[in-house]
Design a protein that fits this description.
alpha+beta, 3 domains, six-stranded mixed beta sheet, Rossmann fold, 24 helices, 49% helix, Serine Threonine Protein Phosphatase 5, Tetratricopeptide repeat, four-stranded antiparallel beta sheet, Hypothetical Protein Tm841, Chain: A,domain 3
Amino acid sequence: MLKVLYNMDKDIPVKEIPMKIRYLDGVRLYYAFLAGGNEVIKDQEYLNKINVFPVPDSDTGTNLASTMRSIAESSVPNSSVYQTLHSIADAALSGARGNSGLIFAQFLHGLREEIKEMQRITTSSFGHIVKKAVHYAYQSVVTPVEETMLTVMKDWAEAVYQHRTQKQDFVDLLYHSIKISKKSLKNTQNKLPVLAKAGVVDAGAKGFVDFLEGIHNFIKKGKLEKIPKPISQKEDQGFHVHKTKASLEHRYCTEALIVGQNMNLDSIRKEVIPFGSSTIVAGSDEKIRIHIHTNKPADLFYRLKDFGTIAQIKADDMKKQYEASYERKSKIAVVTDSACDLPQEIIDQYQIQVIPFYISFDGSQFLDKITITPNMFYSLLKTHKKLPKSSQPPLKTVQNLFSFLASHYESMVVVNISDKLSGAYQLSLKASSTVPNKKISVINSRHLSASLGLIVLRVAEEIQQGKSHEEIVETAGKWISKTKILVDIQTLKYMVRGGRVSPMKGFLSKILNLKPIVSLDSEGRAVAYGKSFSRKGNMKKIIQRMKEMTQNEKLWNYALVHAQNRKRAEKYAKKIKESLHWDPAYIVDIAPVVGVHNGIGAVGIALMFQ
């Protein structure tokens, strides 16, 4: 029953509750919280539209809704208020997203800590508890800003506390306190300059008021209303939504859960603070949730790995979110995954959305190219006996991105790594099917790394030149078939460790000093293309093969990638230029998710023909 609460077709058959509610037990509180979450989820699109603080990245509604869904999916009711809140707070902390989601989760953590072992609560005890819980929310924020969600939370809690004895009916108490919270919410627009300029209230604060209203309606009516299907929200809720121009001080909104034993909250907070702004560090000595806006997510998480196991990691590119909302260069969004090797400047130039793969060292998660750089990755690769694990992002992550892009673009073209090498293509298909009434074309590139990069670059350039969605999709198959990649492998050690090459073949290769050349077949499978007894021989073979291919077909462009071997990549580029009189489109590091199998020292050359 629990897992369908947010996907039901009928109202949950909750027993009618008398109008005079003098106490809440665990079960009542549980369903009240789900009802509050329902209201936030229903309002998420509007919350996204009015999101301008701390940055206008249009995701407060999505983040708060995700936090509420986590509560519904992972918490369980209990007759004891304490046990119920323990479950709810733990679920919220694990699933919290964004500033507002984490502040809300820490508020719930405060409720759990202050409620002690209570089986039920009265209005009097409730007043004491919520007032104290607000302090937990404030303490989690390194630099609290008033006239935001924090202030509305504080004003509401103070109203509850002041009337806890006069109003012994929860329906009455909540009705009065919500009136106060709405006044406080309106004041956020009047008192915080960035909100006044935009003509909106604080989105996180509005979400908190939505939550309170959902609780009040449930306690008053005694039933949990179903979630309607997603529809466009009307913007006539008393506030006029303005587009807000802003310069972003920090690019990435990063979050993670750190799990360990006897962790020190203050030590982690001190480690995190220098890396950026909008910093929140919340939780206990066993689970700590962090949130920070930063330009150096890789440096930060490389240091945090020593405190505990990094889990549930997220790093949203706020620059991309802002551009999608206010500065789109095209009506068509281009999406790929991090197995696509392109320089960051090209990704930024064409506003390409990149979904990162997950890489795990000893259980700690990293986001490919974002929270771990190639140099960091290869450093860990050298020192760890076990090969790191790579995995696709959760379906929910891809769904969230597609849903966000669908609200800003007319259509999407998604180009994934070969389906013979990863399940990312199938994942994108599944995620696209959940976005209604939006044209999304998911393309199996049958390539990876530099060859995938050239295909994505071609798609982006053609879109910029004015090609339609249909023209792009129709021609993509031709570009894919006319793209080739040759990879000069330095050692088979990593392929052996990853199980892609047998130990015997690896041993023989080492004894004979064989240097393989790897390519992809027409279906996108990795295949042996050739071998030499030296890397000099490999280079000679690859250059000769390129000359032969360019004699028969007209080259569109080519690119090189390398795994900590830029010197060799540049040597290849020099020799190719001597032959073709053509500079490469780019030379860039191989993505860690690709390098984990090709190993240190590899160099790849990709070509696309007209």
